[in-house]
């Protein structure tokens, strides 16, 4: 496992999306985007709240037209999480959502219009004291850059990004972050590496249009994981053709795998073999469903036999080592006196994990109360 102590994070300027800090040594944030019709206000609000429950720090919402602008105004009043307004083509939408309380404006300069319109958006962001995300994708690059490079390259993405960074610099606006996404992992990674050397603004990283949940997770884990391990990236989004809540879960899985930030139960489980004394796969799958609501970071090892079980249990919050008919249970590395009947492993583990999470949360609350006093 990569230890965050050995990751030298790229130094970047700190900006704020609502009350959430981005860059400047602040925790790497996880965000997603609603996939509902924005004008369907109740459904959009419900999805935003489900993303917040899943652990999202920020939510982006598409605002494609003026009807969506008016919906955004009502949605913003009914949610607590910071909202980024995603705007394409019509700069007037950016001006209006800023007035309605957007916490950040995401624009793709390649399709927002001429320099005058871009300046209008910048002036509006200044007035309302909100940041901008410059979002560059090869699919919507400026015509001259597409003509110059013909096919997707990292240099094309960076050239487009720097063109618009120069706009912001020229107008004395430094409250922005940048993304240079591609669906090709290698191109995206190289683009971020190049960009990271040229600016000190926060970088929003991800693999755009990564695909379905299986293929997209693999691409995102590789691309985002490489960049984070090199200290590049201040906020992430896993872009999947799946429910947005899955993006948040997988985002945290990536951060947890790099020992950067954890949320919920981290299951350590063997791939199983003929040595297993109980159904490991079924146990893990069922517990993942049952414990989906737990946000407390816990390491739980579920190993089917005594070959690797004791070793993994010794470094887990809760560990289970398979045995004949009954299995050994560990807590904080210590083996308990009693064993669990293999026919009741799921229920017994759920009880213990929930109790551990509750105790952990209570300890945190007690420490916070002591600090306040």
TrEMBL record:
<dbReference type="GO" id="GO:0019288">
    <property type="term" value="P:isopentenyl diphosphate biosynthetic process, methylerythritol 4-phosphate pathway"/>
</dbReference>
<keyword id="KW-0408">Iron</keyword>
<feature type="binding site">
    <location>
        <position position="305"/>
    </location>
    <ligand>
        <name>[4Fe-4S] cluster</name>
    </ligand>
</feature>
<dbReference type="GO" id="GO:0005506">
    <property type="term" value="F:iron ion binding"/>
</dbReference>
<comment type="function">
    <text>Converts 2C-methyl-D-erythritol 2,4-cyclodiphosphate (ME-2,4cPP) into 1-hydroxy-2-methyl-2-(E)-butenyl 4-diphosphate.</text>
</comment>
<comment type="pathway">
    <text>Isoprenoid biosynthesis; isopentenyl diphosphate biosynthesis via DXP pathway; isopentenyl diphosphate from 1-deoxy-D-xylulose 5-phosphate: step 5/6.</text>
</comment>
<dbReference type="InterPro" id="IPR045854">
    <property type="entry name" value="NO2/SO3_Rdtase_4Fe4S_sf"/>
</dbReference>
<keyword id="KW-0411">Iron-sulfur</keyword>
<protein>
    <recommendedName>
        <fullName>4-hydroxy-3-methylbut-2-en-1-yl diphosphate synthase (flavodoxin)</fullName>
        <ecNumber>1.17.7.3</ecNumber>
    </recommendedName>
</protein>
<dbReference type="GO" id="GO:0016114">
    <property type="term" value="P:terpenoid biosynthetic process"/>
</dbReference>
<dbReference type="Pfam" id="PF04551">
    <property type="entry name" value="GcpE"/>
</dbReference>
<dbReference type="GO" id="GO:0046429">
    <property type="term" value="F:4-hydroxy-3-methylbut-2-en-1-yl diphosphate synthase activity (ferredoxin)"/>
</dbReference>
<feature type="binding site">
    <location>
        <position position="273"/>
    </location>
    <ligand>
        <name>[4Fe-4S] cluster</name>
    </ligand>
</feature>
<dbReference type="InterPro" id="IPR058579">
    <property type="entry name" value="IspG_C"/>
</dbReference>
<dbReference type="GO" id="GO:0051539">
    <property type="term" value="F:4 iron, 4 sulfur cluster binding"/>
</dbReference>
<feature type="domain" description="IspG C-terminal">
    <location>
        <begin position="266"/>
        <end position="354"/>
    </location>
</feature>
<dbReference type="InterPro" id="IPR011005">
    <property type="entry name" value="Dihydropteroate_synth-like_sf"/>
</dbReference>
<dbReference type="Pfam" id="PF26540">
    <property type="entry name" value="GcpE_C"/>
</dbReference>
<feature type="binding site">
    <location>
        <position position="270"/>
    </location>
    <ligand>
        <name>[4Fe-4S] cluster</name>
    </ligand>
</feature>
<feature type="binding site">
    <location>
        <position position="312"/>
    </location>
    <ligand>
        <name>[4Fe-4S] cluster</name>
    </ligand>
</feature>
<keyword id="KW-0414">Isoprene biosynthesis</keyword>
<dbReference type="InterPro" id="IPR058578">
    <property type="entry name" value="IspG_TIM"/>
</dbReference>
<keyword id="KW-0479">Metal-binding</keyword>
<dbReference type="InterPro" id="IPR016425">
    <property type="entry name" value="IspG_bac"/>
</dbReference>
<keyword id="KW-0004">4Fe-4S</keyword>
<feature type="domain" description="IspG TIM-barrel">
    <location>
        <begin position="13"/>
        <end position="251"/>
    </location>
</feature>
<dbReference type="GO" id="GO:0141197">
    <property type="term" value="F:4-hydroxy-3-methylbut-2-enyl-diphosphate synthase activity (flavodoxin)"/>
</dbReference>
<keyword id="KW-0560">Oxidoreductase</keyword>
<comment type="similarity">
    <text>Belongs to the IspG family.</text>
</comment>
<dbReference type="InterPro" id="IPR004588">
    <property type="entry name" value="IspG_bac-typ"/>
</dbReference>
